[in-house]
Amino acid sequence: MKSNLFALALVAALTAGCASDPNSRTVGEVVDDVSIGTQLKAKYAADPDISALKVNIDTREGAVSLRGEVKSLAIRRKAEAMAREIKGVKSVDNQLVIAP
């Protein structure tokens, strides 16, 4: 699985380098964002309270956005706290909704 995640990060980094927009992200920024998202998804997958399949993670320049569903307010807060623990995370926009 680690090789698949590395391959995904590599593809994202290489394709990002092809952008012609001078305001686009550098390869390093893309790799950092992919790494943050991958680490967080792995943490969620290992946690019995959080369904990694129901939480979408978007990362841009260290800003993490969480969208999807969780079972309680406590789990919503836990998901945000887990995101903030990852090195390189600058901010977290928690838009998770509570659903039974």
TrEMBL record:
<dbReference type="InterPro" id="IPR007055">
    <property type="entry name" value="BON_dom"/>
</dbReference>
<dbReference type="Pfam" id="PF04972">
    <property type="entry name" value="BON"/>
</dbReference>
<dbReference type="InterPro" id="IPR051686">
    <property type="entry name" value="Lipoprotein_DolP"/>
</dbReference>
<dbReference type="InterPro" id="IPR014004">
    <property type="entry name" value="Transpt-assoc_nodulatn_dom_bac"/>
</dbReference>
<feature type="signal peptide">
    <location>
        <begin position="1"/>
        <end position="19"/>
    </location>
</feature>
<feature type="domain" description="BON">
    <location>
        <begin position="32"/>
        <end position="100"/>
    </location>
</feature>
<keyword id="KW-0732">Signal</keyword>
<protein>
    <submittedName>
        <fullName>BON domain-containing protein</fullName>
    </submittedName>
</protein>
